[in-house]
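Incident log, entry 3
Record: Radical SAM protein (247 residues)
Problem: checksum mismatch between cached and fresh output.
Input:
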Amino acid sequence: MFTQIEITTVCNAKCFYCPQDTLPHSHMSEECFNQIVQSEKKPTLLLLQGTGEPLMHPSFWKMVIFAKEREHRIGIITNGSIDIDPKHLFLLDTIGFSLDTLDEALAKRSGRTSPSQTLKHLLACHSLTPKKIKLYAVNYGQNLEPLIAFAKEQNIPLAIQQIQPKKSYQAHYTTEPLPYTTYQCTYLENKKMHYYFVDGTKAPCCFMIDATKVLPIKQIRQHLEQKNVPPCCTQCGELTGIKRLYI
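Fresh output:
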């Protein structure tokens, strides 16, 4: 069980497969963040990430310190465009770097930030805290072999996720509808996580991009029991059998 908090929807990238530019851009208030952290009755893993770039929050390190003082572990996924001061590395328990390609031209076409800049910051962190570093990639049909080779050479765990089939993500691309392989969601059944949108709205998972469409868990279960997938869950990988590949 862990908690994920979308501390910002502001980002300096425009990845075509991310719905970030369809959402209002804002930072979570420190008051809202502190209330969420204090609602956790026991120390847990807090992932400070959502549709935005977490390091762009002006109070990011202040929020991290507030949570660490309450004995929580902290993880982030960053696009690697912003340098992490070495003196702050001890505050983070896991640091994921999002990187889809090592090709500068392809990255630019797909709306990503510079791979060379990401690699520079990744390797700087990896040299000091190698066990904290992970790589995350989205497979949208590009050649992933150079990235896989880099991860193996540096001994960095790499998770590759298929491009989202979920309809709420597809503002700039389309995928063929996938058949539902199940009407049971592990996030609902096993209570794997708590997710908080930037406005503090709570959801059972991190795939429900639009806070205004989130339904109470009881209602979602009722829909799924009747084999009727609600809009907040349409074409979700949990129901269509899409899995991550770990290298």
